[in-house]
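To: structure subgroup
Subject: Chain for Friday's discussion

All,

I'm putting the inputs and outputs inline so they're searchable in the archive.
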Amino acid sequence: MVALCLACLGATSMAAGPQPNTTAPVVRALPDFTDLVELVGPSVVNIRTIEKVLARSPAANGQADGEEEMQELFKKFFGMPFPGAPSGPNAPRQQRPNRSAPQEEEQPKGVGSGFILSADGLIMTNAHVVEGADQVVVTLPDKREFRAKIIGTDRRTDVAVVKIEAAGLPAVRIGDVSRLKVGEWVMAIGSPFGFENTVTAGIVSAKQRDTGEFVSFIQTDVAINPGNSGGPLINMRGEVIGINSQIYSRSGGFMGISFAIPIDEAVRVSDQLRVSGRVQRGRLGIQIGAVSKELAESMGLAKAMGALVQNVEANSPAEKAGLEAGDIITKVDGKVVEKSIDLPRFVGGIKPGSKATVTVLRRGVNKDIAVMVGEFESDKKMASQAPAEKAPAQSTFSALGLSLSDLTEGMKRELKVRIGVRVDQATDAAARAGLKEGDIVLQLANVEIQSVKDFETTFARLDKSKATTVLFKRGEWAQYAIIRPSK
């Protein structure tokens, strides 16, 4: 009836006068997921984890503790042993029964989901589903149960592979994430709250959502709840294109936003886990930050892109190759670094020990640097930095609101810098730009600063009516500030 009325209105409107030539939107029927459930459902498993904890018998402990406490109270208030208890100097000391000794007890730890990768029993799930478990129990849709062996886990991507001893299992088909489109229908199968083989559906809300260090997630509005973790996200061709991993929630339940690990990244991780039980990732040994729009403009970049090198670790692959704080990395092996979060993913995907070409923008000039990529060390910590002492030579730059002093060689060694001057005071323009006392100025307008005199010379050449860039180091981090001189 509604469609008929709309058609009548359209006819009346056309009769009234000429209408603009518009293309009618493509009308599609709502999807039917029944065939997908029949196709993929047999490959989705329920995963229960069990942990062993130390436990005591409450009844036994209560009885032993009560007897001992009663004897102590009777002796304290009446000055004599409890009736029936051994007495005398040679009376043996009553021993507590061994029944209070701790015993191992199996307790359920959690419930999750997974899916079959191969017919011989390889199963993919989330790392957080099986992490810390003493036993992993896999239940197939036909209700068969198996004890699973953990092949390997990777916390950084939240991917895990487990193995059960079975054959002829129905494996999933892996899809092509590059073909995935925002607005596309997708389906999830899992065990939310322990309810096995639960099917939910929705659409892809966004791609490449940056919420993790090494993973750019698929965002959907598919209903995902605790227990769905590790289950597959499936496209309309019946292919797995993601692993349901996280939800955005203020209540602990589904609120319309869920995240899945792209299956191409998960497969890369699982391949390494199957071979060696762990994942090797490349590293450069740098700390990075985002490139702001203002910094991009001041550095001559057409748009805000790349990753700003804020610190270079001592003896790291980056330091040996000649990377410097203040460099903006724009490419890795020809792949464009659109956002700073892209860099750890690109480098992490490079095999440690191999060479990579890193393109940097340094003081307005693009430069290719060959780096021998190292292996990522998750627990590597930056060394603490001793506070610097003031150097006697000082100079004040009123237009910038800066008072600066030279660094002694000892201070440079402590601060791990080879150039720079110390900020003794930051007011007005410098303070507005974010500079503080104790910062080390490394560059002014892309010119390296060795001393206060260098700063004076460079500052004298600047157009005082325009903003200028200052690269400075604070603690272990280097970053840019945009200073607009006071008039």
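Points worth raising on Friday:
The two ends are 71 Å apart (CA to CA).
The longest strand covers residues 103-116.

D.
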